[in-house]
Write a structure and sequence with these properties.
Blueprint (H helix, E strand, L loop, with lengths): L3 H4 L3 H6 L3 H17 L2 H12 L3 H7 L8 E7 L7 H21 L5 E7 L15 H6 L18 H15 L5 E4 H7 L3 H9 L1 H8 L5 H6 L3 E3 L14 E3 L4 E5 L5 E5 L5 E3 L1 H12 L3 E5 L3 H13 L6 E5 L2 E2 L16 H7 L2 H9 L6 E2 L5 H20 L10 H5 L13 H11 L4 H11 L9 H21 L7 H16 L6 H14 L6 H12 L7 H8 L1 H12 L2 H4 L1
Length: about 575
Amino acid sequence: MLQGSTLQGLSHAAREAKSWPFEQARLLLDRIARTRLSDAERDLAAVLFAQGKFHEAVATLPALAIKPVIFQCGYGASGLPHLGTFGEATRPTIVRNAFRALTEDAIPTKLIVFSDDMDGFRKIPDNVPNKAMLEEDRDKPVTSVRDPFGEYESFGAHNNARLRAFLDGFGFDYTFMSSTETYKSGRFDAVLLRMLERFDKVQAIMLPTLGEERRATYSPFLPISPKSGRVLQVPTLDRNADKGTITFRDEDGELTEVPVTGGHVKLQWRPDWAARWTALEVDFEASGKDLVDSVRVSNRVCQALGGTPPEAFHFELFMDEQNQKISKSKGNGLTMEEWLRYGTPESLTYYMYQSPKSAKRLYFDVIPKATDEYLQQLDSLNRRKAEGDNAAPLDNPAWHVHRGAPPERVSPVSFSLLLNLVAVADASSKAMLWAFIARYLPAATPESEPLLDQLAGYAIHYYEDFVKPAKRFRSPDDRERAAMQALAAKLRALPAGADAEAIQNQVFEVGKDAGFEPLRAWFTALYEVLLGQSQGPRFGSFVAIFGVDRTVALIERALAGELVAA
């Protein structure tokens, strides 16, 4: 999270920042003024906000900071944390940091990660043991389902522990809340009783959204059977607002009356969302585009309960390699473990940050590009800061990726260059890669360049799993052959110690002299003939790190047909 000293002086730049988190932060600030202040107070606040006097605004108008601004995200506790869980926590965290920078931390904030662990256990995950035991506990609240791993008092407790370890491992600042605990502790009692009192209003909102068959039995209250402990999808047959109870027919057919408070019922998911917003006074929640209609319905239920719906932010969904919507049940997307085998957590955060309103493919081939783009953005941010430009960083994705405290060191070698170095050097370990890197950067070591060392490991994994199986070398045509012979001669004639820029100039010169138009065709030929792929790194940098002599030998092998034969 942002440090207090980092925040000072950022408010002016934050008011001018155009990136989407700051747009959301300004909307959120408007909401706080609108919901917490009178008309006259809002006029004063607007003046102070415009001047960046947020601490003075809070001192003058203490209602602004009477409670934290609540950011919230949910977690489905019937499964283990996954890549979607990371995204659920990442997006509100990004907006929260922008809000803190905008207001110089004058208004407190909190991120609630809410585990829906009182939901009925409807579907058994594929990646857990003891499925027969889980089958016996089907439809019970997840916190009443026995732990198939035998480690915790329930499956819900197991997954909640995994969630917290997952979030802690990525350094999220959050407050964990359990649905089971909030229902049973009485935290939701007031809003549950209000739901009972306004039952007909809630039904009038919900029933038109349902099919005919579902409408006939729908109730916002899902009672938990006192006999079986299962969460029941049954109609409410009678209700008593004075007693705070509902009556339903239990699984054995007996009419049963239970209080709606104290954890005896669970709300249907859209009324539950609305009740949570109302009870916790949530100010901001992000959700996928597929939930736009559900948010609209939950907003109306929230208003019927006397609450104010949160500021909503809708993001587009990720697609698989065939541009189909990613589905957990289909398993047609990347897992968290898969991304982290080939790329840094920061590259994943960057990919989630980029263009949240646009659908993006989430497949293995996006990782190298996302990694290098992240590195480029971090390098750009640091260069602008070194030049004294303190405003530009706030619109740089790396500022948001690193939650306002980006590192000053960047990898001196790109990920794509490392991938190609692995390929031509046939490196199977980081030690082999560092033997080449040390020639290019004599002062660099794994200890002095930890990010580069990490990237080297990712590059080896990615090459072995994806690049190597897809490599297809081809023979050069006559013009390409002549140009590559000329390039080999130019490289031999270079003075010892020629840098990447000098080498790149020679590559350009040979391509122009050979008449390649566009010049991109020349580089494509180099990549396809020498590296067995259609794209590659900046060729001068590749030669500098791989070595001029080795590159000449590689060209000679290609012209002799050895690469195609191999």
